[in-house]
Amino acid sequence: MAELLAGLGTSHVPSIAAALDKGLRDSDEWKPFFDGYIPAQDWVRAHKPDIAVVIFNDHGNSFFLDRIPTLALGVAEEYQPADEGWGPRAVPNFIGASDFAWHLADQMVAGHFDPMICRELDVDHGLQVPMELVFGRPAAWPVKIVPILVNTIQYPIPTPQRMWELGQLLRRAIASYPTDEKIIVLGTGGLSHQLQGARAGYINPDADRAWIAKIGADPARYRAMSREDYIAEFGSEGAELIMWLVMRGCMDDSVRTLHQHYFAPASMTGAGMVLLENMG
Amino acid sequence: MTITDRIPDTPLLDRARSNAGYALNKMAMGLSTPAGRAAFLADEDSYLDRFALSPAQRAAVKARDWAEMVRLGGNLFYILKISAVDPTPIRAIGAAQAGLSLEDFLDQRLGKVTNG
């Protein structure tokens, strides 16, 4: 059976991609942010996952408001980087783990989650940035991917509780997949930020640090919070953090926090990561 | 149009705002292709004519009035594509919505933080 190797939560701020593209990786502003990912990158490289399941939101790049899937699942053989207004970024195409994706589609629908199934899909910075933060800038990505897209832009967005339950389903799908592949689950978005309205620029580093410290060891509060709670505490776009709950929900009750990192502000966002392993 | 937000100064893209801003956001979405960007840059008025913008929305776009675009239903993830054609840093867009100078915005909203 397939194995859940680890869960990783990370920001997916587009300015991270811009910093890499502009050669600012080692600038005074950005070096502390990127360096904080090195221990997790080393761990992942040493443990050689085969598949990355990436939970993220499209940011008005692949889906317009004419049709917004609350949940979408990619089953494609290959995904290209989206044109977000500046032309597609020069990152390698992503190879899809379409066999596992179709297995997950079966499991989701049987388990009463009904995603839009995507055979052709460009992927934006919500997927690109986490992949770059975990795997660097290789000539070819060392893992195949399964994208799970969650609507966090147009309301109603799904509830945090639903995200946790999706994680529980993902856990069962991994456990019932009859290969010996190793899977890493990337829950992405956040941390605190707000781009819209007079409260733009809101960040909450104290809440972010608490999240980083507790999402592994003591996630009960975050699992119970409402959508409004997320927006109030983490900002309107900080509510993306609900997607980390898919990652956390697919893991054991008891997990080990292997690495963690926090940095603020990355552009207008509290940014960081955790790497979690089941206690086993 | 009156929209009451449950969390102050936090305009969520709910039914009312999505309806109000649909044409504005659709116009911005058109800038996600090279052809759309070229058309906007070649003749902005003609490009805007393709979409059913209200006069106020059109004026806000022409003025690059980010706060007004959001007030009229624009969502940052779409209208940001205007900033790809007519370069404007995201922090400047944030400052404009907050009603602060860029310097005050960086200091008051993003400054009192620590790294580590």
Task: Describe the model.
The complex is a heterodimer of chains A (280) and B (116). Chain A is of the alpha/beta class and 280 residues long. Helices cover 34% and strands 23% of the residues of chain A. Chain A has helices spanning 14-21, 31-35, 38-47, 98-110, 125-135, 160-175, 205-217, 220-224, 227-234, 244-249; strands spanning 3-10, 51-56, 71-74, 78-81, 94-95, 116-118, 122-123, 144-150, 182-188, 255-266, 269-278. In chain A, the strands form two sheets. Chain A has an eight-stranded mixed β-sheet with strand order 6-3-8-2-9-1-11-10, with helices on both faces. Chain A has a three-stranded mixed β-sheet with strand order 5-4-7. In chain A, strand 10 and strand 11 (269-278) form a beta hairpin. The N and C termini of chain B lie far apart (45 Å). Chain B has a domain at 15-86: Protocatechuate 4,5-dioxygenase, Chain A (Orthogonal Bundle). With 116 residues, chain B is mainly α. The longest helix of chain B is centred in the C-terminal third of the chain and has 10 residues, at 76-85.
Q: What is the helical fraction of chain B, as a range of percent? A: 55-70%
**CATH architecture title of chain A:** 3-Layer(aba) Sandwich
Q: Would you tell me the structural class of the helices and strands of chain B?
A: mainly alpha
Q: Taking all residues together, what is the mean pLDDT of chain B? A: 93
Quaternary structure of the protein: heterodimer
Beta-strand segment tally of chain B: 0
Element string of chain A (H = helix, E = strand): EHHHEEEEHEEHEHEHHHHEE
Identify the overall geometry of chain B: globular
> Structural class given helices, strands, pairing of chain A?
alpha/beta
Radius of gyration over C-alpha positions of chain A, nearest whole angstrom: 17 Å
Shape of chain A: globular
Q: What pair of chains forms the biggest interface?
A: A-B, 42 and 48 residues
Rg over C-alpha atoms of chain B, rounded to the nearest angstrom: 15 Å
Q: Helix content range of the residues of chain A, please?
A: 25-40%
CATH class of the domain at 15-86 in chain B: Mainly Alpha
What gap, in angstroms, lies between the N and C termini of chain A?
Answer: 15 Å
List segments of chain B where confidence is low: pLDDT < 50 over at least 5 consecutive residues: none
Number of strands of chain A: 11
CATH topology title of chain A: Protocatechuate 4,5-dioxygenase, Chain B
Average pLDDT figure of chain A: 97
